[in-house]
Amino acid sequence: MTVKQITLGEIADLLSVEFEGDRTFVIKDAGTIRESQPDWITFAGDKKHFQEFENSDVQVAIVSRDMPVTDKTTLRVDNVLEAFATTVRLFRNMMKPPAKGVHATATVSPSAQLGQDITIGAGVVIGNDVSIGDGTCILENSVIMDGSTIGEQVIIFPNVVLYDNTQVGNRCILHAGCTLGAYGFGYDSSSAKHLLSEQLGFVLLEDEVEIGANTCIDRGTFGSTRIGQGTKIDNLVQIGHNCQIGKHNLLCSQIGIAGSTSTGDYVIMGGQVGVADHVNIGSQTVIGAKSGVIGDLKGAKTYFGTPANDAKKAMREAAAIRKLPDVIKRLRKLEQQLKDQPETSSTSNTTQQDAA
Fold first, then answer.
1. Cβ pair 105, 122 in contact under 8 A
2. Catalytic site residue 194?
């Protein structure tokens, strides 16, 4: 990667910030305090990170205006993250907005309906009767199969596959390699064979949904597998056929949700949560990482463990389990002490009988 050298004065001018210091000081990169070097610029939006900055070798930081006075160079701003993001862009080769229009190597069916100001990248395949809304961008080698509908201002990154009849709302983001509408994992095994069940449904994404890289969402058997408005799904997530995911859910990486499960709104699942089929999860539920959900969960509660239980109770149980080795040692010690005691009671009884 080419090393860019930008002066502190240039950064200050970009952010419209006044500071006391050497405007000619060369900044070679931008990063977090943990990874930064003395000639980088970092940021500190709170006292904890400001103290880390003070203790580090980094000489320059973008900080909030209420941070303490320091001998180091600080650029004081109202919005630290926004200012730092602007600065980081100076040192990165950001993806340029792709050119509007259809690339010469793309394959677009004559029956497809294309909106205005769209981008169809190299190697993209658009099937029959596909509809694409205004301002949508579909990048390299993605495949949109027959009958699919894509809304306005959608971004589809490379190598995405939309099976037939997939419906994508407005302002959605589909990251590289995700697959929507693959066949559900449903089979009829009554004949001693595993015969694929009907796969006549589709996947429906409501507006402002984001799907992570290499995530797979299976089509419904007859109707929809639905992802509610504003839901954000991380990389490497599997959602089974007929699932109905509510609005504004946050589903972290490596989650697996079996078929016909439903969630309410504002549900949060940590990484590697597993959910059984035909389960209903209430709104505002939080499920801790690596939990296993095997039954319905009431909303507005936090759950953890396998099977998922009230988080506080699960933590107490986990703490008790950690004490088991010590408890077992103490129990064995008590057992040994009992074995080592003389049998005084039987001797006493015999003596009393002889005396009688």
1. yes
2. no
Report the run of H or E that residue 321 belongs to, with start and end: helix 311-340
Per-residue pLDDT reduced to its tens digit, 215-245: 999 999 999 999 999 999 999 999 999 999 9
Q: Which amino acid is at 239?
A: I
Active-site position among 103, 175, 241, 248 = 241
Which string of b and e fits 97-114 if b means at least 16 CB within 10 Å?
eeeeebbeebebeeebeb
Q: Which residues pair with 81 in a beta bridge?
A: none
CA 279 to chain centre: 21
Residues 6+ apart with CB under 8 A from 200: 221, 222
- 92 CB-near residues (< 8 Å, 6+ apart): none
Summarize pLDDT for 283-296 with one digit per residue, the tens: 999 999 999 999 99
Q: Do the beta carbons of residue 273 and residue 291 sit within 8 Å?
A: yes
Question: In sequence order, what are the beta bridge partners of 269?
Answer: 251, 287
In the chain, residues under CATH classification 2.160.10.10 are: 102-310
- pLDDT tens digit string along 305-344? 999 999 888 888 888 888 989 999 999 989 988 988 876 5
CATH 3.40.1390.10 residue spans of the chain: 6-91
Q: Tokens representing 354?
A: 């002889």
Q: Identify the CA nearest to 136 among candidates 119, 148, 121, 123.
A: 119
CATH number of 6-91: 3.40.1390.10
Q: Beta partners for 254? A: none
**Residue 138 and residue 119 in contact, taking contact as beta carbons nearer than 8 Å:** yes
**In what helix (H) or strand (E) does residue 161 lie, and over which residues does it extend?**
strand 161-162
Looking at the DSSP bridge assignments, the partners of residue 232 are: 210, 250
Q: What are phi and psi of 108, to 5 degrees?
A: -125, 125
Q: Are strands 60-64 and 73-77 parallel, antiparallel or unpaired?
A: parallel
The fold of 102-310 is UDP N-Acetylglucosamine Acyltransferase; domain 1 (2.160.10)
